[in-house]
């Protein structure tokens, strides 16, 4: 469904500076996959999506989407895909149903079919009650559901969602996901979905495959479970008296499956406590053996915690940085851009200069 080879995007900023936003990404997405692209701000997620959806041309490399090259056949790519950008696609002063009908007609449906499709989508995305209201009067969650409806109007087999749930509260996020998953399975062929997100839990729960991007490159690509097992491992935390910490750490180092051991001591003078943190492939499986070994060495463990890793642990393991702490665009000298702002002028196509990012 998607095939990229060494896909690259450089932005020339001012006269001298080049931002290497995407540095040679090669990936394949099969029909029916639900893929989350995860990474810190400025990692190149949106730029990758914008190339795949033909909104901006690659600097180098190739991308085929739905069987067509994005540079040679952008119109065919657009006809086959849906795209929900960060800015949203619906016009503020339009009525909700009219917006969907207009979008359907843009995609070549006759008026009657466009109305039928609009009604189908309004029902599927729980927007029937809001159908005769202006788009600008919708709540954040309703607005985002309408954006998804707009992306689906022409029944694409491949849907791109750029941070679909950013800014929504947990209830609305869950509700949006419920609708997305329902729409996906309701289609005759399971829809392929590629989305970007900052929400680790979202990628973890819903995506069947997680592609981690950092500094414009893919640094990991697998199921969330496989990434966590391979790259992070469970965390077993054993609490001991400080004088026993070093000996317990040595015991843990020798235990089967141990990947790393860290000792921490905290508390007021005279009342310190130590923890020995053990990263291991299988925490629940390793813990009884660790406790037996500690007991055999005469080391008393006063508390045991076993935590499964998160995708943040995966990112931390890969980069030494936490995804939660990398919330700032870190390209030196380049200010974060508003959607639609293009200092390079390199790709000032009509689609690209509008905040509405409608594929038509
Ligand atoms: N039009 C542009 N002109 C110049 N630089 C750009 C442009 N668009 C993106 N960039 C830069 O390219 C890099 C990748 O940006 P991109 O928006 O793809 O990241 P992202 O992973 O989607 O980030 P976020 O999570 O914040 O949306 C950043 O350094 C960004 O500042």
TrEMBL record:
Give an example GO molecular function: ATP hydrolysis activity
Q: Where is the stretch described as Disordered?
A: 331-360
Gene3D superfamilies found in the cross-reference section: P-loop containing nucleotide triphosphate hydrolases (3.40.50.300)
Matching SUPFAM superfamilies: P-loop containing nucleoside triphosphate hydrolases (SSF52540)
Main subcellular localisation? membrane
Q: Which PROSITE patterns match?
A: ABC_TRANSPORTER_1 (PS00211), ABC_TRANSPORTER_2 (PS50893)
What biological-process GO terms show up in the record? response to antibiotic
What's the domain of life for this entry? Bacteria
Subcellular localization, as worded in the UniProt entry: Cell membrane
> Is-annotated flag, keyword NADP?
no
Q: Which UniProt keywords apply?
A: Antibiotic resistance, ATP-binding, Nucleotide-binding, Transport
The biased composition feature labelled Basic and acidic residues covers 339-360
* InterPro entries for the chain: AAA+_ATPase, ABC_transporter-like_ATP-bd, ABC_transporter-like_CS, ABC_transporter_ATP-binding, DrrA1/2-like_C, P-loop_NTPase
Membrane topology note: Peripheral membrane protein
Annotated ABC transporter domain residues: 2-240
Q: Which GO terms describe its cellular component?
A: plasma membrane
Q: Is Nucleotide-binding found in the keyword set? A: yes
| Protein's name in the database | ABC transporter
Q: Give the species.
A: Promicromonospora soli
Lineage of origin: Bacteria, Bacillati, Actinomycetota, Actinomycetes, Micrococcales
């Amino acid at each position: 469904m998607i095939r990229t080879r060494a896909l690259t995007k450089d932005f020339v900023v001012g006269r001298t500076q080049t931002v290497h936003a995407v540095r040679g990404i090669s990936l394949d997405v099969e029909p029916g996959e639900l893929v989350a692209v995860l990474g810190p701000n400025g990692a190149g997620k949106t730029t990758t999506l914008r190339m795949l959806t033909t909104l901006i041309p690659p600097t180098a490399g190739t991308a085929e989407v739905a069987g067509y090259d994005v540079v040679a056949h952008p119109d065919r790519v657009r006809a086959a895909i849906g795209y929900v950008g960060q800015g949203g696609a619906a016009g503020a002063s339009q009525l909700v149903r009219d917006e969907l009908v207009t979008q359907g007609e843009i995609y070549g449906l006759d008026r009657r079919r466009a109305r039928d499709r609009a009604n189908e989508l309004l029902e599927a995305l729980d927007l029937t009650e809001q159908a005769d209201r202006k788009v600008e009067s919708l709540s954040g969650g309703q607005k985002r559901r309408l954006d998804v409806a707009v992306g689906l109007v022409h029944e694409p087999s491949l849907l791109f969602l750029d941070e679909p749930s950013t800014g929504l509260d947990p209830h609305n996020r869950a509700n949006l996901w419920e609708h997305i998953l329902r729409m996906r399975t309701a289609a005759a062929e399971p829809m392929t979905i590629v989305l970007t997100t900052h929400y680790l839990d979202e990628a973890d729960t819903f995506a069947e495959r997680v592609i981690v991007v950092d500094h414009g490159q893919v640094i990991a690509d697998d199921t969330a479970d496989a990434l966590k097992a391979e790259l992070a491992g469970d965390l077993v935390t054993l609490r001991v008296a400080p004088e026993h910490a070093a000996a317990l750490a040595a015991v843990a180092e020798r235990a089967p499956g141990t990947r790393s051991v860290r000792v921490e001591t905290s508390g007021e003078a005279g009342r310190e406590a130590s923890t020995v943190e053990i990263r291991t492939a299988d925490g629940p499986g390793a813990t009884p053996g660790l406790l037996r070994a500690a007991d055999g060495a005469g080391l008393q463990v006063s508390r045991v915690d076993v935590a499964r890793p998160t995708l943040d642990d995966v990112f931390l393991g890969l980069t030494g940085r936490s995804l939660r702490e990398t919330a700032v665009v870190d390209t030196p000298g380049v200010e974060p851009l508003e959607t639609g702002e293009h200092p390079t002028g390199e790709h000032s196509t009509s689609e690209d200069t509008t905040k509405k990012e409608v594929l038509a």
